[in-house]
Write a structure and sequence with these properties.
This protein is mainly β and 91 residues long. The chain has a single domain, classed as Sandwich (Immunoglobulin-like). The protein contains two helices and six strands. Strands 1-2-6-5-4-3 form a six-stranded antiparallel sheet. Strand 4 and strand 5 form a beta hairpin. It is globular. The chain starts with 7 loop residues before the first strand and ends with a helix.
Length: 91
């Protein structure tokens, strides 16, 4: 198993996004992405986004597209989104 790296975001020309510290992909469409990271929930808005690379063991994702916004969400809402659907249903 690969060692996870610290949280880091690299955005190149608003077209290529590399993120380290990813724990889980909660939602992924070509316009809206929700990631659980080790620094909280990260919502990414854009157009024509697609996943170029994903390695959750290493905590790495690479996304290409046109990026419009990156927003972190903290608090109890972020904690609920970070849990799997099954764990929320069995609560």
């Amino acid at each position: 198993m690969e060692e996870k790296t610290r949280h880091k975001i690299t955005l190149i020309n608003r077209e290529i996004l590399d993120i380290n510290g990813v724990i889980n992909v909660e939602k992924f469409t070509d316009e809206d992405i929700m990631l659980e990271t080790d620094q909280g929930m990260l919502n990414i808005k854009g157009e024509k986004m697609y996943m170029k690379q994903l390695n959750l063991d290493a905590g790495v994702i690479m996304i290409e597209g046109v990026f419009k916004a990156l927003t972190y969400h903290e608090g109890s809402t972020a904690g609920q989104k970070g849990k799997s659907l099954l764990s929320r249903l069995l609560k």
